[in-house]
């Protein structure tokens, strides 16, 4: 799961996707691969000190950093590293995702915005599918086009675009929030896998 720009709603969309899959009875885990502006731990009320960076650095096991949310598991970013792109492009990160795919039916990966840094494009290489999130009346066509070109440059499997904040006459506006820590699990090698702000 990714977006063109910060603030387009990719993290919330990733959380909603993980929750929806888990409600269908499939084991699901959300991996926070936005290592620059992580927000999942705050949104879900989880411990932010351990996560992806600890596992990739070989300082913790997957079980040690996995936390329970509302029906699915979460691995937060962990401490912010000095080299996010390098870390996400490492073999260790690929091994982390492979290990999760052996344990969960679905892995949803929340990555950084594409146009801000190269992290999302790098991380999308390990994802089976990528979903691009954009915001109505905010994301410009040129930005969306650049984001898509960036993903295509690394042969990412783009399966769809989510447009949020659409105003439909006569409809009500619904807002979702997450605060309850509970049990774990996701496959589908992430929605680009990966990544809402």
UniProtKB/TrEMBL annotation:
Reactions it catalyzes: L-tyrosyl-[protein] + ATP = O-phospho-L-tyrosyl-[protein] + ADP + H(+)
Region entry Disordered, spans: 178-197
GO cellular component terms listed in the entry, alphabetical order: plasma membrane
Keywords, comma-separated and alphabetical: ATP-binding, Kinase, Nucleotide-binding, Transferase, Tyrosine-protein kinase
EC number: 2.7.10.2
GO molecular function per UniProt: ATP binding; non-membrane spanning protein tyrosine kinase activity
InterPro entries linked to this entry: AAA_dom, Bact_polysacc_biosynth/exp, P-loop_NTPase, Wzc-like_C
Family matches, as Gene3D superfamilies: P-loop containing nucleotide triphosphate hydrolases (3.40.50.300)
AAA domain residues: 7-138
Family: Belongs to the CpsD/CapB family.
Name of this chain's protein: non-specific protein-tyrosine kinase
Organism per entry: freshwater metagenome
């Amino acid at each position: 799961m990714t977006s063109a720009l910060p603030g387009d709603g990719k993290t919330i969309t990733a959380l909603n996707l993980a929750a929806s899959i888990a409600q269908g009875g499939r084991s699901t885990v959300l991996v926070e691969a936005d290592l620059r502006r992580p927000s999942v731990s705050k949104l879900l009320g989880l411990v932010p000190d351990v996560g992806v960076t600890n596992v990739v650095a070989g300082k913790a096991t997957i079980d040690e950093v996995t936390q329970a949310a509302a029906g699915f598991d979460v691995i937060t970013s962990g401490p912010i590293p000095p080299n996010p792109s390098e870390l996400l492009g490492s073999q260790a990160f690929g091994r982390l995702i492979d290990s999760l795919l052996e344990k969960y039916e679905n892995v949803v990966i929340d990555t950084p915005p594409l146009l801000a840094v190269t992290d999302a494009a790098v991380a999308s290489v390990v994802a089976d599918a990528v979903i691009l999130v954009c915001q109505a009346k905010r994301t410009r066509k040129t930005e969306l086009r650049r984001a898509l070109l960036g993903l295509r440059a690394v042969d990412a499997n783009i399966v769809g675009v989510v447009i949020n904040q659409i105003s439909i006459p006569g409809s009500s506006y619904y807002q979702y929030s997450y605060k309850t820590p509970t049990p774990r699990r996701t496959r589908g090698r992430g929605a680009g896998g990966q990544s809402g702000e």
